[in-house]
Amino acid sequence: MKVVFALFDSLNRHMLGPYGGTRIPTPNFDRLAQHTITFDNHYVGSMPCMPARRDLLTGRLSFLHRSWGPMEPYDNSFPELLAASGVYSHLITDHYHYFEDGGATYHNRYDSYDFVRGQEGDRWKAMVQPHWERLREMYHERQFSAKRRDYKSQHIINRGFIKEEEDFPSVQVFQAGFDFLDLNRDANDWIVQIETFDPHEPFYAPKRFKDKFASGWNGPIRDWPRYGRVDELPEECEELRANYYATVALCDSLLGDLLDYFDRHDMWKDTALVVTTDHGFLLGEHDFWAKNRMNMYQEIVHIPLFMHDPRKPSFDGTRCGNLTQTADLAPTFLDFFSVQAPAEMAAPSLFASLKKPMREGLLFGYFGGAVNVTDGRYSYHCYPADLIRQEINQYTLMPTHISSFFTTEELSNATLSEPFQFSKGVPLLKIPVIERSPMNEHYGPGAMIENDTRLYDLVSDPGQNTPLDDPAMEAEMSNLMACLMRVNEAPPEAYRRLEIPVPVADSVAT
């Protein structure tokens, strides 16, 4: 068996042709759907970027126990489990968060890796004295910074070295993928992960893609929206969205190159292909930009997934409506190579979900925010009464945030917890969350603008415009959430912070 896994970042499901999108032509995603099973009810688990990837590698949710951080010593990872069975894994990525403190244990799980430099705030190009005043004129004031070790200032420096189409990191990622395939496609027992940061913000695409979505904007570069409420002028909003559309068009084109490669080398008969993303991105829906600040709306959490299995060509062009989520990918990659999933890998394989529904519902969320649950018909978003003063702890042996260690102030109150089943008998540091934690204002409790518990009917109200007032259904969804939390070994305070009882016994499929 051979597997190609293509992973995009912040790719909106509802904008793709196979899911009914019409705003952006996506002819290559349309082609992809003809060769794959399209999953209609695929969801995120832990959010945002690196928590999603920890779910993806380990096959279990992480947001109930810690925030953005590294793989832990007790974590299973599908690349290492495959390696133990003689299957080679290779990672190609321009997702620079893998190489910061909070992600630095991920890439080493693969047999080899290739890091393409230059995306967003990647500390790539060194310029001691940039021409800040000239650059200030080029960039909109909301995406300009001259502060060192700032994502925006580093991006401005990096961008000066990304001019021709072949300079773009995503283009280089896919080219590196083709180089891997040229060298290895006739070998057996390998998986290659071709992963690009696009269409994640800033929305910077080659000119030929941008020209297709010209908004008439004549101001400075405007392609990086804030995380939060929309307060820009209408023409600014249109320019921001146009740049996202252009970057999605770039991704569609790169996918087309991959499909052409499969066609040219007749790889459909012996090579699996999986294509997905980590999460979506709000572009003004619900009066918000981005993620991390608001309720976990469908635009953010309901994500695309396509899978081709060369052993089952009759499945090509079909659809699956059963509930699935990001964590299911780890056991699926093991399944491709007939490798047994360990007990700690709580998620089911996608192959099992093709045969019958494996879940009555699924959980998703940010560490410290709401615990969210859906059964496919309803979505319930349960917040603690006080996000800032809630009882919540980080459980970890790797105390780092995105780009820093836990502070000594955070660590000063750490204790050792009893082991969880998934920690394989190892006690963990239990670290109380404090307001001054570096994660708090970026993707933690202090970042949230919306924080009220809500219930939505996704059939009668797919846009999630009007929360339901239905105490009976809310109680049913709360019970489903509590049962799923128990299956995922939520710590005792996770129930107290939401003011829900610990269920006595499991009655829910995982």
TrEMBL record:
Keywords attached to this entry: Hydrolase, Metal-binding
InterPro entries, alphabetized: Alkaline_phosphatase_core_sf, Sulfatase_N
Any one annotated GO CC term: cytoplasm
GO MF annotations, alphabetized: iduronate-2-sulfatase activity; metal ion binding
Pfam families: Sulfatase
Domain Sulfatase N-terminal: from-to ranges: 3-337
Metal-binding as UniProt keyword: yes
Name of the featured protein: Sulfatase
